[in-house]
Amino acid sequence: MNKLYVVGIGPGEYEQMTMKAVKAMEMSDTIIGYTVYVDLVKEHFPEKEFMTTPMKREMERCIQAFEVANTGRTVSMICSGDAGVYGMSGLILELGTRYPETEVELIPGVTAALAGGSVLGAPLMHDFAVISLSDLLTPWEKIEKRLECAAEADLAICLYNPSSKKRADYLRKACDIVMRYAGEETVCGIVVNIGREGEEGRILSLRELRDTPVDMFTTVFIGNSQTKEIDGYMVTPRGYEVAGFEK
Predict the structure, then answer these.
(1) In the structure, what pLDDT confidence band is assigned to residue 55 with cuts at 50, 70 and 90?
(2) 179 CB neighbour count, 10 Å cutoff
(3) 171: CATH
(4) Which residues does residue 129 pair with via DSSP β-bridges, in sequence order?
(5) Whole-model pTM over 0.85
């Protein structure tokens, strides 16, 4: 049977890929993905055939993956982070009904919420929500509602795709929504270039976050009412009685 892997490659750094992801790509004849993601893995698999499509060509990319697999080649469709978190897993499975002769296997990866969280400390130790601010496929009104519900529930929030040239003020809008329910001094954090050259984390208040320039390579963390900064780390306590602990 033809084989198509859908592989989450993690945030970008080879060392942060899972062993299963590496093995899947090693067993593949062809690796297909968004140009930026292919560039992240190409040097580690130089003997492979690579195919790329630019952003906004996701449907074309997935169909291409199936068509190549149908020629008898083993294919890896790669996605940054986890392929099931704003990745291609869902679309591949939807299209897969048209290609019953191709077996699909999903390989998990480390998503930005987890990789970025480890840079800042432990911002997602308790219940949290992950919300993308991109309105390319989701109406902004629905994004607003999700932000409001998460803030009202006092969830820690991780924001993907916080800003772009066309959405320069979306993070500010998001912070304004959260501040209806959270204080301006709520502990927040940002991480840029997770798992890549130039990786950097910063802890700041919700008020400061509102006016901080970010881009598509930034992941944003907004704490809940219990989140605090401890020795330079962003920590959302789970509720352990640390104060009463004695060595």
Answers:
(1) confident
(2) 16
(3) 3.30.950.10
(4) 157
(5) yes
Q: What is the pLDDT of residue 56?
A: 80
Q: How confident is the model at residue 165 (pLDDT cuts 50, 70, 90)?
A: confident
User: Do 89 and 143 share a structural domain?
Assistant: no
User: For the chain, how long is the longest CA-to-CA vector?
Assistant: 64
Q: Range of 102's domain?
A: 2-107
Is residue 130 over pLDDT 90?
Answer: yes
Sheet arrangement for strand 200-205: 128-132, 156-160, 218-222, 187-192, 200-205
Quote the CA–CA distance of 78 and 9 in Å, as a whole number: 7
**What tokens does 153 get?**
């529930």
Q: Which residues of 119-144 are buried (b: 16+ CB within 10 A; e: fewer)?
A: bbbbbbbbebbbbbbbbeeeeeeebe
Q: Final residue of a domain: which of 107, 126, 143?
A: 107
